[in-house]
């Protein structure tokens, strides 16, 4: 399950950034995951929960994970039709050729995270 490794990197990146910005705790982490990115949202959520459980005093230990799904989109190089491909080899529904260029759906990145500089409004679990 490569989601564990991915999530580890994400948590580490956010922790480092949050420390630099003197953030006291992270409230929310938002990710953008494409349907063709080979990353499973459920597995990501699971990995995040595992990291939070293992974490002692880390900034993300009470953060909420929000996963935004990016729908796949392909544009046919021959006829220009746009459609939602099911696999990375995108077959145009009009030409029936694997002529689609994937323009969306392969994304996997941190969209944003939200932190607080103070401990007020802090609700620990
Ligand atoms: Zn076409």
From TrEMBL:
The alphabetized UniProt keywords are:
Metal-binding, Nickel, Zinc
- Where is Ni(2+) annotated to bind? 2
* Sections of the chain in a coiled coil: none
Q: Where does Zn(2+) bind?
A: 76, 79, 92, 95
Q: Which GO terms describe its biological process?
A: protein maturation
Which stretches are transmembrane? Answer: none
Name any one GO molecular function: nickel cation binding
Q: Which Pfam families match?
A: HypA
Name the source's superkingdom.
Bacteria
Give the protein's function.
Involved in the maturation of [NiFe] hydrogenases. Required for nickel insertion into the metal center of the hydrogenase.
From the Swiss-Prot or TrEMBL record, give the protein name: Hydrogenase maturation factor HypA
